[in-house]
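Weekly puzzle thread! Below is a chain. First person to post its structure in token form gets bragging rights.
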Amino acid sequence: MKTQELFNVLEQNKDKSLLFEYAPNKLVGANYHITEVKHVSIDSVDCGAQTDAWKETIIQLWESPNELDKTEYMSVYKAMAILKKVGKMKPYVFDAEVKFEYSNVTFNTAQLFVNDFEIRNNDLIIKLAIEKTDCKAKSICGVPEDKELVAANDEPCCSPDGNCC
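Winning reply:
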């Protein structure tokens, strides 16, 4: 989901509570805070020596240990106020992919992409998902598109005598 699309969804649902589902049927606690918004520029070179560049908006969610008993979720309206204040200080790139950075005691820190959203009663639930790492230079490295797992004794896609950097 692009940053503008997220803002549109928030704008259309400002009277609701804002919940985040970080894994199937697992919600970020009601004690969460938006602790940071990152405007990230990525300039990369993949294993096939191809360059790429893109921008991301990364919104960090943190669960406060001082509010473990909290049951009322942040309102969409309040989240929008935080995000708008950030936008006045550091303008958004609205066509940048938006991700949410999150962790808890049982879930390692990850940057999660927005997979979907759902309206349930008076809640806007943003459904997050993990994006798997991938070889972006499959055709250059000779990796078949449908191959997912590589045994430990198999050649890596970027072997020393391969085509990669």
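Puzzle host: Confirmed. Bonus trivia for everyone else. The chain has a mean pLDDT of 90.
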